[in-house]
Amino acid sequence: MAQFKDVKSESGLSALNDYLANNAYVGGFSPSSCDSSVFDSVGSAPCEKKHPHVARWYKNITSFNKNERSEWPKETSSGAASAANGAAKKEEAAAGGDDDIDLFGSDDEEDDEEKERVKQQRLKEYAEKKAKKPGPIAKSNIIFDVKPWDDTIDIKEIEKQVRSIETDGLVWGAGKIVPIAYGINKLQICCVVEDDKVSSDWLEESITGFEDLVQSVDVVAFNKV
Fold this sequence. Notes:
- The chain is of the alpha+beta class.
- It folds into 3 domains: 1-97, no CATH class; 101-136; 139-224, 2-Layer Sandwich (Alpha-Beta Plaits), CATH 3.30.70.60.
- The chain has 8 helices and 4 strands.
- The chain has helices spanning 10-20, 33-42, 52-62, 66-70, 79-97, 112-131, 155-163, 200-208, and strands at residues 139-148, 170-181, 184-194, 214-224.
- A 4-stranded antiparallel sheet has the order 2-3-1-4.
- Strand 2 (170-181) and strand 3 form a beta hairpin.
- The model is unreliable at 76-92 (pLDDT under 50).
- Residues 103-130 form the Elongation factor 1 beta central acidic region eukaryote domain.
- Belongs to the EF-1-beta/EF-1-delta family.
- InterPro entries: eEF-1beta-like_sf, EF-1_beta_acid_region_euk, EF1B_bsu/dsu, EF1B_bsu/dsu_GNE, Glutathione-S-Trfase_C_sf, Transl_elong_EF1B/ribsomal_bS6, Transl_elong_EF1B_B/D_CS.
- This is Elongation factor 1-beta.
């Protein structure tokens, strides 16, 4: 993982911007405590024109609340490692939170039948309590390529229309204009979605719904976060 110092300075932000041009997160393919630490050091949203990749990353990180960020693993090298570490932390937290439940009782005067009854009752209470614990919110980071019909179409107008798509569980990130060929450009734009609320298929259908502007939509990257 790259190390970044003095990210409040222009030189520090530029170094971070160069790194994030080819990386979704500071610590790997999934968010980690490294992202949370650098996010706190940056302090506020950077200028999109000067540091577009940092701005995209910063907006992505702000879609997670402080409690979610505190549960990110120290550092990851792959999405699978992140998921495994995150799951382990949650299991440890769940186990720690239930330390006050005595599963088996300790009254030496109870006979075997009474001990078994108490044990089963407390196991039931433990299972019910654990079942009520809310699970983590599954999210994904998606990057789309949106292509126009020809070079007469304003890419900024396409971006305006794409960002007009709003729904619960969807946060749009940074967008940029990328040359294709023969004077034709495309829009590359990223977003973070809550998996249970927003699907990539629905987003593609919504974007291609601007049929006078959009010829096609492709998914460039799809990472679980």
